[in-house]
Amino acid sequence: MKQYLKMDEWKIIENHFDAENNQISESIFSIGNGYMGQRANFEEQYSGKSLQGSYMAGVYYPDKTRVGWWKNGYPEYFAKVLNSTNWIGIDISIDGEAVDLAKCQVNDFVRILNMKDGYLQRSFTAKLPSGKKIKVDAKRFVSIVQKEIGAIKYSVTPIDFDGVLTISPYLDGNVKNTDSNYDEKFWDEIYSNSAMGEASLTVKTKKLDFYVNSSMKYDIEQSGKKINFNARTKLEKKFVGNVVELKIKRDEDTTIYKYVANVTSRDYKIDELENVGKTILEKAFDKGFEELLNEQAEAWHNKWKESDIVIEGDVSAQQAIRFNIFQLNQTYTGEDDRLNIGPKGFTGEKYGGSTYWDTEAYCLPFYLSTADQKIARQLLIYRYKQLDKAKENAKKLGFTKGALYPMVTMNGEECHNEWEITFEEIHRNGAIAHAIYNYVNYTGDKSYLGQYGLDVLVEISRFWEERVNFSNNKGKYVMLGVTGPNEYENNSNNNWYTNRIAVWTLEYTLQVIDYLKNNEPERYAELHNKLNIKDTEISKWKDIIDNMYYPVEEKLGIYLQQDGYMDKEQILVKDLDPKNLPLNQNWSWDRILRSCFIKQADVLQGLYFLEDRYDTATIKRNFDFYEPRTVHESSLSSCVHSILAAKIGYYEKAYEMYLRTARLDLDNYNNDTEDGCHITSMAGTWMSVVQGFGGMRVRNGKLVLNPFLPGHWNSFSFKVMFRGTLLKIDISKENVVVTNEAEQELTITIYDEDILIPGEETTVIVNKLRN
Ligand code: BGC
């Protein structure tokens, strides 16, 4: 854990340069707009420790798999989000001496991520090895108004000398991925051009043929006035740029405004790329930096209007939750249904930028409640479009029918290669089915079921049908050799969660079939034919629903994580010498597998998803048994525990669990923020506040709230968008104040009572869960 950032409600602030923290800060201060992302690398050259990262969403590389012992069924490649053309580069030198913070004495360093307005800012003074002192101010953003545009304002002021400043803005395609398996560079040059004041570079991936064109244009001001300048052009392999030499005078600033458009063959025809890029760039250039930044700020303010959470009385918590919301909105905007949310978003290379079950299990609720429903719908469409690949995946593993969605994917193909995850962690299929339920339950958009939902549900159900087998011994259906969400157990038989979510999928599929038969008979007839739904399979599904085996521990009245779990030596985490923790860094894998310790919510994940089917006493018994055995070594663990703890009235526990992830990256809690931020777990943190502390659910088409105030806060409020109505819910010790920001009225349930909230009005209810 490392706390070096300053507290502020709207900003992340680093006010001291420490090269040791640089890579962590590069992750934390990342900027993105759902289309591209940029780590907080410096514009000027830097020879210290750094992970250079410029990412274009959906532009990836199938890096050849590296694995010690090949198993049939492994994917041939691991899809990597690519480190693309470095578009931020502006080299600076003074009288021929390069500015490189690793070689200078740095003072007054401040780096700020302005979350309210959506930009990154940095300033410092540097004493160069020659003794000359300069002051630098830099500001940059990637636009959420015009997604292809990145803009930089970079000023240099000599403090104690007159001299010559050389500014070299450039675009550099000589980049590689730090995590490339065979140290390959993934890009070839296709086109390059450099002229006075502008340059353009098109590169293409060596496989899959993604083309990316980056075009730059810039102008320069001295003491606030635009100047005419001469530039030398630079045209090298995969590198284009300009070199400008300017006389500078003590205390007079020189400012370069660099504008870049990044366009890709995912959106435009290859032979149009340079022209499209140029047109978009010219428009941005004509607007100028300040106007672009104003637009950016306004667009961010609008996002905040729909998604902000305000916490009074705890600046650290306030900063953290806004950081999480900011990063989630930087990562996914729902504009493109071919994109999804990588566990690290655009903040690093780890997890390859690929899609995991994290999206359905943890991220969907955030986008459902903080934006128009079409945004969350896009996440579902992504899986719908990949259904054929999921069917191929099931075939590849030897199934005769059905769909198995990959554990890790970019384009629908599996790209993870650990047998216990690739082949066994099949519960992901359940989360994808559950997301359809979650979306329809939240939005009421039942049209989704006939349009897209049933196709996915039927194919997942078919997979479950074939994946279970009837045990003559037990006289029940069983599911053998799986890995549940708790990855600290592999090859288990009858993981309760997996059996449960499989049966739930079958039940829900049958319900949806009934719904469509009764409400959209024509569409159902079409789907019945298209999907070739047979009566025999429907009766088989019913048989599995009625006769599935679930491991239980009768004496304790709990569901058992898997067969044989109680044979393990039962130790609680609190009784472990803390020096063993985290287990995954201190214990052999063998020891972890034999122990009773749980990585993340497993049985409890099921109780969270299917909460309505279990009474509070059951949830409590299972929580009391499993949480003390859980080491929470996945950042996705705490949110589920926090929400369930709140549900069963363990308010302190709910808060403690929330704290574990709220500042996970800001305080580098797991010592791994330098690899990138935990984007998907940030959605979990949001869930802890809204579903945990706010007790928000949707039942029978109604929004339900059961809010309590964590003891450490004076009050908190959150915004939710529910079926076209934007609500603000304010929770203080005394009251729950609901403001309906829409015109239409809405009836919601608060503390089990139905309350009508008229449009544009505020309703005050007494807080019944005073903590
Ligand atoms: C977790 C998985 C998760 C993955 C990516 C793992 O550590 O156990 O549940 O999908 O990280 O976030």
TrEMBL record:
For this UniProt record, the keywords arranged alphabetically read as follows: Glycosyltransferase, Transferase
The UniProt similarity line reads: Belongs to the glycosyl hydrolase 65 family.
Q: What is its EC number?
A: 2.4.1.8
What is this protein's name? Maltose phosphorylase
Q: Which GO terms describe its biological process?
A: carbohydrate metabolic process
Catalytic residues, per the record, are: E487 (proton donor)
Recorded name of the encoding gene: malP_1
Spell out the molecular function terms from Gene Ontology.
carbohydrate binding; hydrolase activity, hydrolyzing O-glycosyl compounds; maltose phosphorylase activity
All copies of the Glycoside hydrolase family 65 central catalytic domain together span 322-687
Q: Which residues does the UniProt record annotate as the domain Glycoside hydrolase family 65 N-terminal?
A: 14-266
Binding-site list for substrate: W357, D358, K599, Q600
Q: Glycoside hydrolase family 65 C-terminal domain: from which residue to which, for each copy? A: 696-755
Q: Which SUPFAM superfamilies match?
A: Galactose mutarotase-like, Six-hairpin glycosidases
